[in-house]
Write a structure and sequence with these properties.
The chain is of the alpha/beta class. It folds into two domains: 122 residues, Roll (Urease, subunit C, domain 1); 223 residues, Alpha-Beta Barrel (TIM Barrel). Helix content is 27%, strand content 24%. The protein has a six-stranded mixed sheet. It has a six-stranded parallel sheet with strand order 13-14-15-16-17-18, with helices on both faces. Strands 5-4-1-6-22 form a five-stranded mixed sheet, with no helix packed on it. Helix 3 links the parallel strand 13 and strand 14. Helix 5 packs parallel to helix 6. The longest helix has 16 residues.
Length: 387
């Protein structure tokens, strides 16, 4: 691993919803982690293996997709497509989080099978980085018959997430709540389907059901793809501390209304952003960026705050050592600028206008994995990699 310096940063987005912008123009990375953030003039003369001139553009934490339906490898049977995870990396997404390997053909639905699937997927993605992106795979789908010992074993073997509750045979809060307790006991983050039925075998879930079950995340409150009412979202905001997920493959009107309500209620730190793809809606490589643009252009939420919802907020809920630009965290970073022809003068202004930014560089743990995105519009100014 090498020492990397990012200099000449025009705008630095922190990923911290409480302080979304940092007064800094340089980042120093060593052994894949951020070691210093500040003014280059104060760094002295660091010896670096690589210097990245950001050319006055914007740097953000690597985006996190909080809701991705992986299977194995970089393939989805839902849309019969290869390479969808690497393609999402070209949209600035450095970490994808499985919401359950529900699309696996012949998915086992007995306790032993669902446990084995979660363990295998978690171990597989721990060893496989599509294009360099990190995938948190192996989100166990709750099936009747799972025991506390099963959750203890899964946690020991690397399973960190419970997929959307409601996709398996466990749907009733009375059945799910004990399993949620076991999962949390062993450090797992728990998601729960919220809203109308999405696929055959899933179920409609209300705010009351979510509250009675007690997950960490109310998945796709704006619809997956059918949304709960705004009154239901208000219940979750006012009567719980559960994280609220907004997804690309949801209801666009509810995306705006739920975000606006969260802004008014002072609950922005609880909003996280996901794709909810691959799905019937398709594969959406730029879905996370599109939700960020939607929020920043159509609601009172700023571009930097929206980016925090797709970075630091999600990392906090899932207990990940990334998502913010801060010493000690993994150097997962995106360099971006306004796209050619945008009315915005920089990336944040373009996003506020509703334009997708141009991604010029993506780093995962301090290593350049994308040098000019193949999916976003071209950036007006490009970062330059040198020594």
């Amino acid at each position: 691993m090498s020492t990397v310096l990012l200099k000449n940063i025009g705008t630095l987005v922190s990923g911290d919803i409480t302080e979304p912008l940092l007064a800094a123009d340089a980042i120093l990375i060593d052994e894949g982690r951020i070691v210093r953030v500040g003014r280059l003039a104060e760094f002295g003369a660091p010896v670096c293996d690589m210097v990245i001139d950001c050319n006055g553009t914007t740097v953000t934490p690597g985006l996190i997709d909080s809701h991705c339906h992986t299977i194995f490898g970089d393939y989805t049977s839902r849309q019969n497509q290869v390479g969808f995870l690497e393609s999402e990396l070209h949209g600035g997404v450095t970490t994808m989080i499985s919401a359950g390997e529900v699309h696996l053909p012949g998915r086992p639905k007995d306790p032993a099978g669902t446990k084995a699937l979660a363990i295998l997927a978690a171990k597989s993605f721990n060893n496989f980085r599509p294009g360099g992106a990190k995938v948190l795979g192996g989100a166990v789908i709750l099936e009747k018959g799972l025991t506390r010992d099963d959750f203890a074993e899964m946690a020991r073997e690397g399973v960190r997430t419970v997929g959307e509750i409601g996709l398996g045979s466990v749907k009733d809060p009375q059945d799910a709540a004990p399993m949620v307790g076991w999962a949390k006991e062993f450090g797992m983050t728990v998601m729960m389907h919220t809203g109308g039925t999405s696929i055959p075998g899933s179920s409609t879930v209300t705010a009351e059901m979510v509250q009675a079950t007690g997950p960490d995340i109310a998945s796709h409150v704006n619809g997956g793809p059918t949304a709960v009412s705004l009154e239901e979202v208000e219940k979750l905001i006012e009567q719980s501390d559960i994280a609220l997920e907004l997804v690309h493959c949801g209801n666009p009107r509810m995306t705006s209304e739920a975000a606006r309500l969260s802004f008014e209620k002072g609950a922005l730190e609880r909003l996280i952003i996901g794709n909810d793809a691959p799905s019937g809606t398709g594969v959406v490589p730029l879905g996370i960026l599109r939700v960020i643009c939607h929020l920043a252009s159509l609601t009172p939420i700023s571009a930097a705050q929206a980016i925090a919802m797709a970075t630091g907020n999600t990392a906090r809920v899932h207990k990940l050592a990334t998502g913010r630009v801060a010493p000690g965290l993994w150097a997962d970073l995106v360099v971006m600028d306004a796209p050619l022809g945008s009315v915005g003068g920089d990336a944040l202004a373009a996003i506020t206008a509703g334009d997708l930014p141009g991604v010029s560089l993506v780093l995962v743990e301090g290593r350049v994995v994308v040098n000019k995105s193949r999916n976003t519009p071209p950036a007006t100014r490009m970062a330059v990699v040198g020594k």
